[in-house]
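Summary for the steering committee. One of the milestones for this cycle was to obtain a three-dimensional model of the protein with nicotinamide-adenine-dinucleotide bound, which we needed before selecting residues for the alanine scan. The sequence and ligand used are listed below.
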Amino acid sequence: MKNSQNTKLKILVTGGAGFIGSAVVRHIINDTDYAVVNVDKLTYAGNLESLASVSQNPRYAFEQVDICDAAALKRVFNQHQPDIVMHLAAESHVDRSIDGPGEFIQTNIVGTYTLLEQARAYWNQLQGDKKTNFRFHHISTDEVYGDLPHPDETTLGHPEHSEGSPADGQDSSSSPQNDNRVLPLFTEDTAYAPSSPYSASKAASDHLVRAWLRTYGLPTLVTNCSNNYGPYHFPEKLIPLMILNALEGKPLPIYGKGNQIRDWLYVADHARALVLVATQGKVGETYNIGGHNEKQNIEVVTTICSIMDELAPMHERGYSLNTQHSTLITHVKDRPGHDMRYAIDASKIQRELGWTPQETFESGIRKTVQWYLDNQAWCQHVQDGSYQRERLGSKQ
Ligand SMILES: NC(=O)c1ccc[n+]([C@@H]2O[C@H](COP(=O)([O-])OP(=O)(O)OC[C@H]3O[C@@H](n4cnc5c(N)ncnc54)[C@H](O)[C@@H]3O)[C@@H](O)[C@H]2O)c1
C-alpha cells in the first residue's frame, strides 16, 4: 500500500518496544516496505533490545515519549507526518493492575485520550488523500468482554453474567465441546463486561476510540485479541515465567486448579493480523483476533514441562536421571476476580481480510521454549530492573 504521494506508508506504532509492539515493528521492517516510528516511554515492559535486529534500518525511527505528554506527541506527529497510527502502548499485566490500578488508568485511559486528541489535531490539518486515507488503529484485548462459561460448569449460564448478556451464549457464536454441549465464543458484538482494573481500563479506551470516530469522524478501527505468546515476552506472564522457572528448578506456580481457559495466539501471527487491519481494514469496524487454541492453564504448563524435558532435561543440570519438570508444579491461591474462560470467534477477520494464524499451539509453543533457551541474555537484561518474578496481584 502506498500513500497519496506514492511514497512508502509511514506507521506510527505506540508501545513498539513491548512484547507485541516489537513483533509489529519487526514485521513491518522485515516483511513490508513501510516506514515505522516507534513511540515508547520505555517502562519496565519496554526493551529496545527486542528491536536490535531492525533498529539500524533507515525505515525505523524511535521516539522515547510518554503518550500522556500532549506536547511531545504533537511534535512527533508534526515531525514524522504518519499515515497510520497503531496504538499498542499500555500497562498490560492484570496482576499489576490489581496491586496498583493508578498507572493503568493513567496510561490506558488518559494516554489513549491524549493520543486521540493529538491524532485528531494532526488529521484535521491534513489535506486530500493523506487526510482521507489516515487511520487510527487501536489494539485491545478480549478481556474487555469478561469471561465465558467454562466446560466444568454444570449448566451453561455463568453466575457472573447477568441474564440476557451476550456472553451467556444467546447471541455469541459457539464452539462444540467433547460432551456435545456448545459453548459460546466472543464475537465483535459481545457486550463489554470487564473484570479487572486492566480490562476495565482497556474497555474505557476502546469506548473513547469509537467515540472519536462517531463524534469527530477520526477514521478509527479496533481489534480485540486473545492471549499472545512467543519470543520477547516479559517474564512476568505465564508462559515465559514457567519456562524460566523450570530452567532454574524453581516452583511453577499455578493459580487455583489451573483450569482457567485461554485462547492462545502466536505473537507473529498477531503482528501480521494487525498490519493487515491497519492497512486494509474498514473504518469503524472491530475485528476479533484469536488463535483457535483454547487451552487450560494447567495444559499449557504441562506442555511446556514435556518440551523442556526433551530440550533441556533436568539431569543435565545436576538432577537425578528421569526427574521431570512437572514435579515443580505447585498450586497457589487463585487471583481475585479471575476470569474462567476466554475464547475468540475470529471468523470475521478470516472472512473479510483473509487472515488465519500460521502456527498451531504445538508448533508455536515449541518455538517459544526454544527461543527462551537460546536467548537467556535477553531474559537477564529485561530482569535487571525491579521485577524479579515475584508473585503479583495478591495485594488488595
Ligand atoms: N499480551 C497479550 O496477550 C495481549 C493480548 C491482547 C491485547 N493486548 C494489548 O496489546 C498491547 C500491547 O501488549 P503487550 O503485551 O505488548 O504489552 P507490553 O506490556 O509488553 O508493552 C507495552 C509497551 O508500552 C510501553 N508503554 C507503557 N506505557 C507507556 C506510555 N505511557 N507511553 C508510551 N509507551 C508506554 C511500554 O514501555 C512497553 O514497551 C496492549 O495494548 C495490550 O492491552 C495484549
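Key point for the committee: The radius of gyration is 21 Å.
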